[in-house]
Description:
Elements: E1 8-11, H1 20-29, E2 35-41, H2 51-56, E3 65-69, H3 74-87, E4 91-96, H4 101-104, H5 116-126, E5 133-141, H6 148-155, E6 162-169, H7 180-189, E7 194-197, H8 203-212, E8 218-221, H9 223-227, H10 231-235, H11 246-265, H12 268-282, H13 289-297, H14 302-315
Helix pairs in contact: 1-11, 5-6, 11-12, 11-14, 12-13
Amino acid sequence: MPLNIQTNISLAPLQGFTDRIYRTLHARHFKRVDRYFIPYIEFQNDGNVKRAHQRDVQIIEGVEQVPQVLCNSFDHLFRLSMYLKELGYSEVNLNLGCPYPMVAKRKKGSGLLPFPDEIKILLQEWFTNPPLDLSIKLRLGYENPNEIYPVLEVLNLFPLKEIILHPRIGKDLYKGSANIEDFEKVNEYSKHPLTYNGDIDSSGKFQIFSKRFITTGNWMIGRGILSNPFLAEEIKQLDSFREVDKNSRLKIFLEDLWEAYELQYGQPAQSLNKMKQHWIYLAESFENPVKVFKMIKKSNKTVVYKQNVRRILEEF
Length: 316
């Protein structure tokens, strides 16, 4: 089925995976990801932005990026946004979706969703004099999916640039399937068009969702692209996309990724650990993902890792 020309694909922000190096090289080697969301930054206890986060939010020439912040107060949101504005950004994304207990128990991420009055106060202060456009990424709730509706009543009051919904609750983490029925209900309730995020791991799955959500033009994909870096091209059915080129293109991408991490860390062992981390997802795009990941996991030296990658690309 031909796609709507307005179909827009964003790479979701996955802490520890979609860092600046990954975003830079993915944009260089693959096509049709329209925006790259930067994993959240926040203040340390000393009031400064973590050095690794400072490095991660640097502008990438020619790549549209949207930085994300993790906070629960206007003061922190404003100060982080001014920091990002000085770097040259025009939009900031507020994370109300992070499901991890260590975040949620601090009333951040999805842990703030049970408190719509506090969200309202934060947004009222923000929109008094907003320094940047504001978008929000959220879940259905933290404890139960009904928590989303009082939050939407608040969000409907403000001129947000975008709302991105991952239709799970925080306590589900990534277990089970995204609740597409709840996404439909929320989409009807919201005055803002929703961006869909969750469980798009193939072009076939995307077609199913796009036929069901016919008014949705914006899509966010995270784990699906980490598993299959070609996914946006496959979804958009590029004339230039050729299945036979995949292994050679993936090989060059992985080589460049290795070199970039080695340049940043200065230690082969750190580069190796970082590449093994990426293979947690990347292995899923091969016919025997368990065997593939075992081969990578057992690669305790650089030379062994590179030999195993070559074998995987040739044999699997």
